[in-house]
Amino acid sequence: QVQLVESGGGSVQAGGSLRLSCAASGFRYSAYCFGWFRQAPGKEREGVAHMDSISSTTYADSVKGRFTIYKDNANHMLYLEMNSLKPEDTALYYCAADGNYCGTRDRYYKYWGQGTQVTVSS
User: Fold this and answer.
1) How many other CB atoms are found less than 10 A from the CB of residue 49?
2) Would you give the DSSP letter of residue 88?
3) Which residues contact 5 (CB under 8 A, 6 or more apart)?
4) What is the DSSP letter of 100?
5) Residue 80 · residue 93 · CB < 8 Å
6) What is the pLDDT along the chain (122 residues), one digit of tens a residue?
7) Which phi and psi (to 5°) does residue 22 adopt?
8) What DSSP line would sit under 1-45, residue for residue?
């Protein structure tokens, strides 16, 4: 049974940092592609950062230089390090995984976590 469980969200002031974690189980972790997505109230879900099976990464322009996606293969963990947070980063953040798709479109990711809330105050 595939499971993705996010944690690490919270409330911070602008300029602060958070690290989101995603614990993965039930699939061949090392062969999968992963993504972090977010959805703010009243907005569509958007891709934030993505990593393929050989750990190549892509980032949304809005987070480049501030966010870093990385994973711990030994412990089946995915992370999103978020620095210099801005109020516009406030959203529900999801991790996603897929065995075939490594792009930025959420509709093609098969497995999803339940989300973790990030709130950034000015």
Assistant:
1) 26
2) G
3) 22, 23, 113, 114
4) S
5) yes
6) 899 999 999 999 999 999 999 999 998 888 899 999 999 999 999 999 999 989 999 999 999 999 999 999 889 999 999 999 999 999 999 999 999 999 999 999 999 999 999 999 99
7) -140, 115
8) --EEEEE--EEEETT--EEEEEEEESS-GGG-EEEEEEE-TTS--
